[in-house]
Design goal:
- The chain is of the alpha/beta class and 323 residues long.
- 36% of the residues lie in helices and 14% in strands.
- It has helices at residues 13-22, 36-42, 61-66, 85-90, 103-118, 121-129, 159-172, 185-191, 198-204, 224-229, 247-255, 295-313, and strands at residues 4-7, 24-27, 48-51, 72-75, 94-96, 151-155, 175-179, 194-195, 207-210, 235-238, 261-264, 284-286.
- Helix 4 (85-90) links the parallel strand 4 and strand 5 (94-96).
- It is globular and about 75 Å long.
- It binds 2-keto-D-gluconic acid.
């Protein structure tokens, strides 16, 4: 008998066919996140859970107790802060994620946010479409900031950080500073990235990109003190997780003009509440957590998660083990 796998993420026919070769696949076919009660019911006898950050909710002690046959939980995401890794280790459940295949796509998004915030693309798009571009428009009112030849500070120099640094160095002739748990000699050599402490990165960067995973150490790593250290002309970009920033402090910093603008892919609460003050600010570009959201990359992530699931359930070592 094939091992049972429950899938909460909308997989393609190709991914389903791959999984079905080795597993008995059952799926959540509703929109968005599966209701918790239903999930707990569906997984009570499965050996594999194939899930994601935004379709399956958190993996915690309650879920693990409820699904005693689980051997593997694979998430279609690189971030796995929705997994209680300690509890998974305790229950001897292997966790897997999907790194690498999304690096370039997320770096593209980070750069889209840098460019659109600096050159005020969203604000000025609205300006044109609302009919405000008139013959007496003052051209100076459309001025933004140069991206090229400026200084980019990257907090969290993992693979995605490096993909951002490469774009910065070779595409935009930028100086790259970085702050990371450990030094990355390769990034220093390849992109001339300069390692510095958080304080000097914040003080010297024109663009500060937050790209770190969410862990107890990085929870609200950027708060009021950090925004005060940034240049008044600085643009803050967050493509990591909303909880790596003290969002109220960000709102204050923007309201008090301590920084120039922000490009945000992630928020403390997702979906972001419609009355969040950040959404009223013309110098904030907000997108709905779409770092890896291209059809090709999501498919590659989905296949990678399937490979990880099948590996464990056929007695092999998965490519991307996290617990
Ligand atoms: C995933 C993410 O891309 O990969 C991550 O860590 O933040 C997510 O956006 C998404 O869950 C995949 O559908």
């Amino acid at each position: 008998m094939k091992p049972k796998v429950y899938v909460t993420y909308p997989i393609s026919n190709e991914v389903e066919a791959f999984l079905s070769k080795s597993c008995d696949v059952q799926k959540w076919e509703g929109d968005g996140e599966i209701p918790r009660d239903l999930l707990l019911k569906e997984i009570s006898d499965v050996e594999g859970l194939y899930t994601s950050r935004n379709t399956g909710g958190v993996v915690d002690e309650e879920l693990l107790i409820n699904a005693p046959n689980l051997k593997v939980i694979s998430t279609v995401s690189v971030g796995y802060n929705h997994f209680d890794v300690e509890a998974m280790n305790k229950h001897e459940v292997i966790g897997t994620n999907t790194p690498e295949v999304l690096d370039e796509t997320v770096a593209d998004l980070a750069f889209s946010l840098i460019l659109s915030t600096a050159r005020r693309i969203v604000e000025l798009d609205r300006y044109v479409k609302e009919g405000n571009w008139q013959s007496d428009t003052k051209y100076q009112e459309t001025y933004g900031k140069d991206v090229h030849s400026s200084t980019l500070g990257i907090i969290g120099m993992g693979r995605i950080g490096e993909a951002i640094a490469r774009r910065a160095k070779f595409g935009f002739n930028m100086d790259v500073l970085y702050y990371n748990r450990n030094r990355k000699p390769e990034a220093e050599e390849k992109f001339g990235a300069e390692y510095c402490d958080l304080e000097s990165l914040l003080t010297h960067s024109d663009f500060v990109v937050l790209m770190t995973p969410l862990t107890p150490e990085t929870f609200q790593i950027i708060g009021a003190k950090e925004f005060k250290l940034m240049k008044e002309s600085a643009i803050f970009i967050n493509v990591s997780r909303g909880q790596t920033v003290d969002e109220n402090a960000l709102i204050q910093a923007l309201e008090n003009k301590e920084i120039y603008g922000a490009g945000l892919d992630v928020f403390e609460l997702e979906p972001v509440e419609v009355d969040n003050p950040l959404l009223k600010m013309p110098n904030v570009v907000a997108v709905p957590h779409i770092g890896s959201a291209t059809a090709r990359t999501e498919e590659a992530m989905a296949m990678r998660a399937a490979e990880n699931t099948v590996a464990v359930l056929t007695g092999k070592e998965p490519i991307d083990r996290i617990s």
